[in-house]
Amino acid sequence: MSQLGEFDLIARYFKHPARRAVLGVGDDCALLQPRPGTQLAISCDMLVEGRHFLPTVDPFCLGHKALAVNLSDLAACGATPLAFTLALALPQVDEAWLGPFAQGLLALADAHGCELVGGDTTRGPLNICITVFGEVPVLNGRSQALLRSGARPGDDLYVSGTLGDAALALDVLFGRLSVPAAVLDAARLRLEKPSPRVALGQALRGIASAAIDVSDGLLGDLGHILQQSGVGATVEANIATSLIASKSYLASSGGQFEPQPAPADWHRWALAGGDDYELLFSAPPSARAEVAAAAQASQTPVTRIGQIEALPGLRLLDGQGELLSHRYPSFDHFR
Amino acid sequence: MSQLGEFDLIARYFKHPARRAVLGVGDDCALLQPRPGTQLAISCDMLVEGRHFLPTVDPFCLGHKALAVNLSDLAACGATPLAFTLALALPQVDEAWLGPFAQGLLALADAHGCELVGGDTTRGPLNICITVFGEVPVLNGRSQALLRSGARPGDDLYVSGTLGDAALALDVLFGRLSVPAAVLDAARLRLEKPSPRVALGQALRGIASAAIDVSDGLLGDLGHILQQSGVGATVEANIATSLIASKSYLASSGGQFEPQPAPADWHRWALAGGDDYELLFSAPPSARAEVAAAAQASQTPVTRIGQIEALPGLRLLDGQGELLSHRYPSFDHFR
Question: What is this model's ipTM?
Fold first, then answer.
């Protein structure tokens, strides 16, 4: 065991000079001075070994992902990242682990101008808790934050990027499926090093009527929008399924899964997979050109996958427009 | 195991209507709108079972303490509490535990007008991570935050309340010492249900030159002030030791410890005990009347225990003004 103490650990791995913060790591509190006319968006995620990541995960990727899942919440809110705190429980001080963990974390932080301003370290079962702060403008007295509660009947429903690859990778890593190495590599990158859609979230301010990030599976997270907006929706299952990047890759390369996954697997990955960290959002049909412009400006593909409706509940249509009877429970950490 | 899901759990135990926050629990982010002319003070503490609390601790007290240690950081900064996030890893959903835990947590939160605005729950080894937000005024372009770095040679050194009782209680609970039940009850309350000195911290804005909260032991935490202020200090060990409340109680009641603790024990509890959550602060001698007024206004006793000096290092004097050779390592979670 290393003799590196708590304060040395913070200084060596996590102390960055404060730039945007008035005061960063090293006092009882960090100090942030939000700009006039802005609101502070705050989100918090805790990652536990064996639950949110495998013990074998590359620590660089884990550092990246721990912040990425929090930045994804800011993205869903349309917030501009500002700063974060990191609380870390470690079974022991393992510098071979801490070095790449801090590098992965701070590389993503730097890429988004999101500053580490404080935190806590302690000994204990591995646990990573990040609280992230972002800025949302207030225009003419109206917050520009994207909420879950703003979807209206008639709105289009969109999702960014691709879906289901992280879930596919997890099935392979758990030995439930075998795929060519190149497919696993690509899918695993989605699982272990997700890219939060921060630029798209900001570009959608004033355009999207509601938004959420897809962390627990498309249908489960859509359920939150429907519940909080008091609406229902119809989703084209085949469009969502077509967004599995590994599927297109396999089709184009002529590769085959062994064993061949059933259609239900494809649906499960795309609709209930979780760990996608894409943005799911609604916008009125009158804003289609603006949505396309936001997608282009943020260099993030978006796909229209359905429609918000007044009728409560969630309807899944297959390629023939028939109602699919499947139900996909969202991932719930306590069920 | 309960069938209570993650979202039900949040709704049942932790969802309070948002008052000060623009948006509270239940979206991707909480939204806070700091008042113009203020800075946001942010602090974060993680509590791990077996490290920061015993498995046998009363969950009501644990909920209280988890927030108290964070409010204590705000107090040390002179900040007014605003809001907090809670991330909670639980081995299982135990409603008999969650109920009192949430009650203890929210009772202290309500007492300080500090609102639960968001967080995360997951399954995992018991871990409580709170990030707290407070407000500090900026007057004439100068932040009123109390920092560790402002102590100047000649400043008086003060500590609030009493010291060492939490450490004494821990020795009893670990079977290293036996004391009368009434003494343990009082000392244990300090260990398990500390009172953060929030009112004193705010009252010291513009008066104290530096401040820190005593969480790792008086001397260790003083070391942070000395290091960050580039100064040294002399502390009257006997004055600090006289602040152990249980000691006065025993003396007045004529009670005896069995076995009688050695003088080194008294010193260890008062000087290096930890878990006191008192404020340690410096102020120029010209501000003695203002310090006394701040103590009175906040109904918090403060005691002058020494002096800041230009000579680096920390000198402990005994009752005869002789230098004590003892060294008390501060509590460091990784040593």
Answer: 0.86
